[in-house]
Amino acid sequence: MRRSLLLIVVAALILSACDSQEDKKGRFLLKGNEKLKENDTKSAIDFYSEALKIDPQFVDALYNRGLVFERLNRLDEAISDFGAVLSIESAHREALFQRGLALMDNGEYYKALADAEKSVALYPDNWQSHFLHGLVLEKLKNWEAALEAFDQGLQLETQNSDLLVNKAILLFYKKSYAEAEALLEKAEKVNPTESNIFNLRSMIAFEQKETEKALDWVEKAIALNPRDPYPYNNRGLYKLFLNDLEAGLEDINFSLKQDPKNLYALRNKGIYYTKKGQKELALRYLEDVHAKDPEMELVQEYLSLAQTL
Question: DSSP string covering 40-70, please?
Answer without folding.
Answer: -HHHHHHHHHHHHHH-TT-HHHHHHHHHHHH
